Amino acid sequence: MIKFFLMVNKQGQTRLSRYYEHVEINKRTMLEAEVIKNCLSRSKEQCSFIEYKDFKLVYRQYAALFVVVGINETENEMAVYELIHDFVEVLDKYFSRVSELDIMFNLDRVHIILDEMVLNGCIVETNRNRILAPLFVLDKVAES
What we know:
Elements: E1 2-9, E2 14-19, H1 25-40, E3 49-52, E4 55-62, E5 65-71, H2 77-95, H3 100-105, H4 107-117, E6 118-119, E7 122-123, H5 128-143
Antiparallel strand pairs: 1-2, 1-5, 3-4, 4-5, 6-7
Helix pairs in contact: 2-4, 4-5
């Protein structure tokens, strides 16, 4: 099961966070700081899976952004690694070459995409067309 989903830049600023288990706000800040420090301090040659406290971290770097997912011990790391890639590809398709600014200024759209893919910490959809269908409907409604 997925515990949390984070997107952070190289400066360690969180651009997106979604928690699938209750974590108090002050503990979230400390957790994010520790997780980000662990991921940013690793070299590109090191493995993208980290054992951290009572869960595992799976992360992937895309240009200046890191996508970090916290999972429990029973979740498949490679499936989550592919989920990260699929998530970024969906963002790329929707925003036509996604950037950090797209994420910052369209956070609601990014959350919709993530919510279409992950529900209550479980991966529910990976088909790009089905993931983007609600957004295209919203865009058509906004245009008219």
